[in-house]
Amino acid sequence: MGQIRKSIVPGLVLCIIAVHGCGGGAKGSASLPVPPASLGGVDVITYHNDNFRTGQNLNEQTLTPLNVAQATFGLLLMLPVDGKVDAQPLVLHAMTMSDNAAHDVVYAATEHDSLYAFDANSGAKLWQVSLLASAESPSDARNCTQVIPEIGVTATPVIDRAAGTIFVVAMSKDSTGAYYQRLHALSLMTGAESAQSPVTIAASIPGTGAPATQNGQVVFDPGQYKERAALLLSQGVIYTSWASHCDIENYTGWIIGYAEPTLQQSAVFSTEPSGTVSGGQGEAAFWNSNSGPSVDANGNIFAMTANGDFDTTLNSAGFPAGNDYGNSILKLAAPSGTTMAVLDYFTMFNADAESAIDGDLGSGGLLLLPDQIDASGNTRHLAVGAGKDTNLYVVDRDNLGKFNSANNMNAYQFLAAAYPNSGCGPGVYGAPVYFNGMVYTEATGDVIRGYKIAAAKLPAQGTTAQVTTQTSQIFCYPGPTLAVSASGSANGILWAVENSSSQAVLHAYDAANLATEFYNSAQAGTRDQFGPGSKFTPPTVANGKVFVGTQADNSTSPPGQNYVAVFGLL
Q: What pLDDT shows up at residue 35?
């Protein structure tokens, strides 16, 4: 067996391994054959592992509670990249690359508008491509401190392994100051653009709301938006969803879809075609702290909107008269033509009041639960989400509950004050995860909480949540980001990245008893330190490795190096 060792040198990874070597692959031709399906390992092809956004890998055969410990587990590699890594790294097992060899590959996108493919075991760079057109640069921060110092690729890409393609959205600007948002379809083997790629993202819908209309159309302005929420691939459509820069007016929420084979636009939806919040601004963006829209087995799309106008005047069917959906959970039909219809929704009774104080429901992401059996023997299709108002919402995907002006009891289960309004927040800036009948939640200024589902309900007394298990550690802003690894229902580990501006920490907890911590990267002194973490970015666990995106330490001059940190058995 060969050994891997790391050398944290800007721009360089040194490694010694008997099997793979350290040579990088050159960019090849776009006509290379489509790679075979993964055999004997795990692929992570989308944010939180699947379109339910469960965050669980149930086929982890290497990492167990016995070997994830300070003596046997730690930092293996630091993979250098040219910008901050806000997107979750994605992984393919036994992927045939342009050298005709099979590699475990980790794909990493950066805010400098680059996409990388690395050998996940040796650290060898297999390819790197720039997503910038000629004479372009990544976008500036758009007078906002949310994504700094530049905006390139923020959203987690999505992979279609069978098609041999990774889809990614990149923001850029040219020398005249014009901004662009483009959807790219790239070869997994080589990074080469497909024949149809890239496509410039543009959209409009009939409307009278925000931002200012043009000839009766609400128009997508590429400079006004960033794509923070992860991409979704469902039934042959790639969905992008859009947020503002620091709530700078005028903006609204968009979901824009493209047909996978042709990259032709196939879906357009706006949350605020007639919104009147803040003197004419509709708002209600999709940002979700990097989580993406979810999709059920029937192709229905679920997403949570942020602060914005909600029409409390309802039509005869109980839907907002102006079709404005601020601070709501939406159920959208797969597109018919380019139209996406709202099939159902849930909105808090005080949605507009919360929007007035920047109380996003859509600061968090939505988790769709596997089928649950209730006390009457009925199958329930549920979803769990939370935002900035300290409440936890469980909704029935077959009857979301719509709007009740008196209270939140229109939700399937409403848990009030499920996390504290602390000096660190309050707020949920991530997404819950699921494993073995347990829902795990996070929030700023709070412990990680686990709720064991029974009879299709989270444990509660009335509207008061009853936590099943929790960590002893409290996590301050932006809160931890979560993932789960297990072998079926055994060897469950809850992984959490504690992000900070100085030194992030990777934690591993017993998924059944969060009071037991198996490992954290601060235990071995400086051995496992990997620098500042990227806020909102969850770890990726696959094939005996844990991958964590980082950002450079900008307090130094020149700024530090950006990396993807790779953890595994020492």
A: 37
> Which whole-number Å values give the CA distances from 251 to 125, 194, 205, 216, 229, in the listed order?
39, 31, 13, 16, 16
Tell me, rounded to whole angstroms, the distance of Cα 486 from its chain centroid. Answer: 21
Among 493, 486, 491, CA closest to 509: 493
Residue 351 to residue 364: CA distance in whole angstroms: 15
**Residue 262, by phi and psi: left (phi above 0), alpha (psi -120 to 50) or beta?**
alpha
Span 122-156, pLDDT tens digits:
999 999 999 999 999 999 999 999 999 999 999 99
CA distance linking residue 427 with residue 425, whole number of Å: 5
CA distance 483 to 469: 16
pLDDT, averaged across the chain: 90
Q: Distance between CA 157 and CA 165 in Å, rounded? A: 10
Residues 531 and 549: their CA atoms lie apart, in Å, by 10
Q: What are phi and psi of 311, to 5 degrees?
A: -80, 110
Q: Name the residue with tokens 């330490």.
A: 553
Before 211, cis peptide (omega within 30)? yes
pLDDT digits 0-9 by tens, 189-225 = 999 999 999 999 999 988 876 655 677 888 999 999 9
| Rounded distance between C-alpha atoms, residue 468 and residue 89, angstroms | 31
Residue at token pair 């601060």: 522
**What would the two tokens of residue 118 be?**
């690395």
Strand partners, 549: 564
Quickly list DSSP for 293-332: -EE-TT--EEEE--SB-B--SB-TTSSBTT--BTTEEEEE
**Amino acid making up residue 430:** G
Spatial CA neighbour of 243 closest among 257, 232, 233, 229:
229
Residue whose structure tokens are 């290497």: 62
DSSP conformation letters of 109-164: E-TTSEEEEEETTT--EEEEEE-PPTTEEEB--TT-SSS-S-BS--S--EEETTTT
Query: CA-to-CA distance for 403 and 411, rounded, in angstroms?
Result: 9
Torsion angles phi and psi, residue 341, rounded to 5: -90, 145
Mean pLDDT of the 354-364 span: 93
Structure tokens at 144: 């906002």
Average pLDDT over residues 399-406: 97
pLDDT, residue 520, reads 98
Q: Is 461 exposed, middle or buried (0-12, 13-18, 19+ CB in 10 A)?
A: exposed
Mean pLDDT in residue range 63-73: 98
Give the CA dihedral 375, 379, 381, 383, nearest 10 degrees. 20
Q: How far is residue 105 from each of residues 40, 46, 92, 188, measured CA to CA in Å?
A: 14, 14, 5, 9
